[in-house]
Structure formats: C-alpha cells, structure tokens
C-alpha cells in the first residue's frame, strides 16, 4: 500500500488533527516543476484539518535576478552580510515569490495571506563585520498567525522582517521558520529543499536525535554537506526548543511531503526531540499487525506460520517495536517451564526499516528480559538468519538442547533449522 493511499493517511489523522505544521520552502523548490504538486500535498494537509504555515526562501531567485542585473550579491541565504544592492535584490525577489505562491495557493482553492508578523532588528556587527541589512527575528506575532490559522487561512511568510519603525531587514528563512514554529507550538517543522536530506560521508541520514545532531555538528569532521548545514543547525535547535520533529525533505519529489509525513520510513531526514521509538508488550489489537509484519517472512519460509489463535493464546510472550505509535517489528520471548532457559522467537522487522539496528535492539531486549526472569540460557531456532545471531554471541548447538516439547515441534516441522544458544551471565 502506498503511504499516500487513504488508509495509510487515516491512521495519522487523530495524531495531527488541529496541530500546526510549519513548512519552509527553498526558492529553488518554488521554481521547480513539482511545486504545483507540492501545493496539492498542502491542500491534502488542510483537508485533514492540519494547520499549515508556509515560509519561503529566495536564494535561487536572488541569484537569477543578480545575474540579469549584472550585480554581484554579497550573500544569498540571508545569513551573511546584506549590502544595499543585495538588499534591493532580496526585497524584489522575495515579494515577487510571495505573490507567486499566493497565486498558486489560490489555484488550489486554498485561502492564504501574507502578513507582517515577524518583527526584526539588525543583526549588527559580528566579529568586526557590519552585516548591514541582515536582520534577526526579535518577535513573532503568534496571535495574528493563530487567528489566520483558526480561520482556515495559510499564512505565507517571506524572508523579510520589520522593525516597526519603517525599516525592513533580510532574514535567513531557515531560522525564521524555526522561530515561527516555536512561537506557534508546531508539532512539525519541515524544510523542503532540492537535496534528499542531510548527507554525511556515510550517506543519507535517515533519522537522528536532536542532541546527537548537535554533537555531530560540533565535531570538526562532521561531514554534513555545506549546503545543508543551516537546516541541520536549525533542526537541532528546534528540537532543543520544544519542536517534537523536524524534517529535511526533497521538495522536488512528487508526493514527497505526504510520504514523509504519513509513513514511518519517510524519504528524507527526520530529526527528533526525544526517543520516538519504543518496545512494549503486544496487545490484542496488535495481533493483526504481527500477522502483517511476518507474512512475507512466512511466505519465504524464514518463519514458521502462526495463526491468530496461536498468537493470542501466548500474547503475553510477544513484544512490539513501534515508531510514532506504528508497529514496525515484533519478537517473542517464550520461557521454558521447568527449565533454566528461554527462547527468542518470531523476530521480524518490516523491510522498510531493515539495516537500522532494530533487529539488534529487539534481540538485546529479549536477552535482558530473559535474564531478568531468571533464565540462564537463551535459545533460538533459525533457518535463514543464523548469521545474525552468531554475530550477537550465539553459538550453534545440538537440537538436544531444546526442551522436550519444543524438540518435538522442531522434529515435526522437518525444517532442519539450526539451533543456537547463548549463555546469560
């Protein structure tokens, strides 16, 4: 099932209804052919009663306008010095882009408005350098934005701020969006860029805790792509300041926004403020999820099929690994009555979440739980994934290690699986 299918979306609605998303769109994304599709995604969010604020940058438009006017801009992203010529370019590009976004939102039957809700003051002189027309957000008029949102209007916020005395300042759109999100108590801050997310030397970062990202950024050899540093810093800061989730997503991918919001795996980088993953005992309502999670592994003979009734009878033995309240892995811990051993069984991870350490985490959880319950040995039976267990300290053993009743089930299956054991200290 595609994550953008209705059933895939419906499970998230109670979680996000009447909540606020602040979406920050790079100028390059607005200029992309996919922007019209992106606004369709915004229309979907609004139809689900999710409040949306759109902030935007204008670096691509400033660069284009500078080339046409034969002007050399002092800074493109609003974080450095903004001289007189660059300020003129920034105002012209930002105002034109805001107008274009309003036009395209109207074409989607979305009510939208530009508002002077961001008060700014000069960034000033930093390390001896006068940043001239570059500003810093001083205050966000959350009351004004709240009234617009409650009336079903999408506020559009350009990378400009005003000081209340007739002066304007150029802002870094990443920072402005983050501060707006904090002022509104948004549940999501979403950066839409023309990159796939945060990339290091090891490839795309799919998910990282805000504090971990902070530590990574502090390292000289962090390896994060230069073009994404601003978003990385703002995402980490947002999580520190109370925003539960920040996303960095390729806004040029069709349905990328909906896929990021309405699926566990997403397509970009998720920066989260707390441990959003949890292992918990399975409940009766999870039986369907367990059957769905394991159906492919059963079909490939990796796991032995278990019926709904079989799972329900031993439901107290099953555990679920969930991400944002959605099960993505399961495992069972069977205590062998009258024995000093326990069995790790039915370990399965959703293919979309493989290679993220979830299987290891589930195995470690079962090992610790078995130890706490008095088991001195952990047993597992595997037909195809025995290397996974060997790497985690299990050793191949004889089927004679299995308790009598379990040995009979093993023999009757005819699978000739490997038996592995691990001593628990």
Describe this structure in words.
The protein is of the alpha/beta class. The chain has 2 domains: 6-272, Carbamate kinase, CATH 3.40.1160.10; 277-423, Aminopeptidase (3-Layer(aba) Sandwich), CATH 3.40.630. The protein contains 16 helices and 23 strands. It has helices at 6-10, 13-16, 27-30, 35-47, 59-69, 84-107, 142-150, 173-184, 210-218, 229-240, 256-261, 287-299, 308-313, 358-372, 386-390, 404-413; strands at 20-25, 51-56, 112-114, 118-122, 125-126, 129-130, 135-140, 154-157, 160-162, 168-170, 188-193, 199-200, 203-204, 207-209, 245-250, 269-272, 277-281, 318-323, 326-335, 341-349, 377-382, 395-397, 418-423. An 8-stranded mixed β-sheet has the order 3-8-2-1-11-15-16-14, with helices on both faces. Strands 17-18-19-20-21-23-22 form a 7-stranded mixed β-sheet. A two-stranded antiparallel sheet has the order 4-7. Strand 5 and strand 6 (129-130) form a beta hairpin. Helix 5 (59-69) crosses helix 6 (84-107), helix 8 runs parallel beside helix 10 and helix 9 (210-218) crosses helix 10 (229-240). The longest helix is centred in the first third of the chain and has 24 residues, at 84-107. The two termini are 44 Å apart. The mean pLDDT is 89.
Give the topology.
Blueprint: H1 6-10, H2 13-16, E1 20-25, H3 27-30, H4 35-47, E2 51-56, H5 59-69, H6 84-107, E3 112-114, E4 118-122, E5 125-126, E6 129-130, E7 135-140, H7 142-150, E8 154-157, E9 160-162, E10 168-170, H8 173-184, E11 188-193, E12 199-200, E13 203-204, E14 207-209, H9 210-218, H10 229-240, E15 245-250, H11 256-261, E16 269-272, E17 277-281, H12 287-299, H13 308-313, E18 318-323, E19 326-335, E20 341-349, H14 358-372, E21 377-382, H15 386-390, E22 395-397, H16 404-413, E23 418-423
Parallel strand pairs: 1-2, 1-11, 2-8, 3-8, 11-15, 14-16, 20-21
Antiparallel strand pairs: 4-7, 5-6, 9-10, 12-13, 15-16, 17-18, 18-19, 19-20, 21-23, 22-23
Helix pairs in contact: 5-6, 8-10, 9-10
């Amino acid at each position: 099932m595609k994550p953008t299918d209705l059933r895939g979306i419906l499970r998230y609605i109670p979680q996000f209804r009447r909540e606020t998303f602040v979406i920050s769109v790079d100028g390059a994304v607005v200029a992309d052919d996919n922007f019209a599709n992106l606004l369709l995604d915004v229309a979907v969010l609004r139809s689900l009663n999710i409040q949306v604020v759109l902030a935007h940058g204008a670096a691509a438009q400033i660069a284009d306008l500078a080339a046409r006017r034969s002007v050399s801009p002092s800074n493109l992203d609003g974080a450095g010095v903004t001289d007189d010529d660059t300020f003129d370019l920034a105002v012209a590009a930002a105002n034109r882009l805001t107008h274009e976004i309003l036009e395209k939102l109207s074409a989607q039957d979305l009510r939208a408005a530009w508002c002077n809700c961001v008060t700014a003051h000069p960034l000033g002189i930093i390390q001896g350098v006068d940043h001239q027309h570059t500003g810093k957000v001083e205050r966000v008029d959350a009351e004004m934005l709240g009234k617009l949102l409650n009336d079903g209007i999408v506020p559009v916020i350009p990378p400009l701020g005003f000081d209340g005395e007739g002066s304007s300042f150029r802002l870094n759109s990443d920072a402005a969006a983050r501060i707006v999100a904090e002022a509104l108590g948004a549940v999501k801050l979403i950066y839409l860029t023309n990159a796939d997310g945060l990339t290091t030397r090891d490839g795309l970062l799919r998910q990282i805790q805000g504090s971990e990202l902070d530590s990574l950024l502090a390292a000289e050899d962090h390896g994060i792509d230069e073009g994404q540093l601003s978003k990385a810093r703002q995402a980490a800061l947002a999580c520190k300041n109370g925003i539960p989730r920040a996303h960095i997503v390729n806004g040029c991918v069709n349905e990328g926004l909906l896929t990021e919001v309405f699926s566990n795996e997403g397509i970009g980088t998720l920066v989260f403020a707390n441990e959003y993953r949890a292992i918990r005992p399975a409940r009766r309502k999870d039986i369907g999820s367990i059957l769905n999670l394991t159906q492919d592994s059963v079909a490939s003979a990796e796991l032995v099929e278990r019926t709904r009734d079989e799972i329900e009878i031993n439901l107290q033995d099953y555990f679920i690994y969930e991400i944002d309240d959605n099960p993505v892995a399961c495992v069972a811990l069977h205590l062998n009555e009258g024995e000093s051993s326990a069995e790790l069984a039915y370990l399965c991870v959703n293919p979309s979440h493989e290679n993220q350490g979830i299987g290891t985490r589930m195995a470690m959880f079962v090992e610790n739980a078995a130890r706490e319950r008095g088991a001195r040995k952990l047993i597992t039976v595997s037909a195809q994934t025995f290397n996974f267990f060997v790497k985690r300290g299990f050793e191949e053993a004889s089927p004679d290690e299995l308790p009598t009743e379990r040995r009979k089930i093993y023999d009757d299956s005819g699978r000739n699986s490997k038996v592995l054991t691990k001593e628990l200290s």
